[in-house]
Amino acid sequence: MKKIVQFVKESYAELRKVIWPGRDDVISSVKVVLISTVIVALALWLVDMLLLFGIRVMF
Predict the structure, then answer these.
(1) Looking at residue 1, what DSSP letter applies?
(2) Coil, strand or helix: which one is 22?
(3) Who contacts 29 (Cβ-Cβ below 8 Å, separation ≥6)?
């Protein structure tokens, strides 16, 4: 039981050292993720359309 209590205390102490991101940092990170997701989705859609076109031309 001592080890569990010690683990919880040490974990809490480590969490207090963490520098949590501010609101502006979180918002900018979300923007980057959303824009990246849209770009990758468009690229995959383009590849899909090109492959579909290629298959239709062959058959």
Answers:
(1) -
(2) coil
(3) 21
Whole-prediction pTM: 0.67
Cα 39 from Cα 42, distance rounded (Å):
5
pLDDT band at 59 (very low <50, low <70, confident <90, very high): confident
* Cβ 45 vs Cβ 53: under 8 Å: no
Structure tokens at 15: 């969490």
| Among 36, 32, 40, CA closest to 48 | 40
Structure tokens at 43: 């690229």
**CB count in 10 Å sphere of residue 56:** 8
Q: Tens digits of per-residue pLDDT, 10-50? A: 999 999 999 999 999 999 999 999 999 999 999 999 999 99
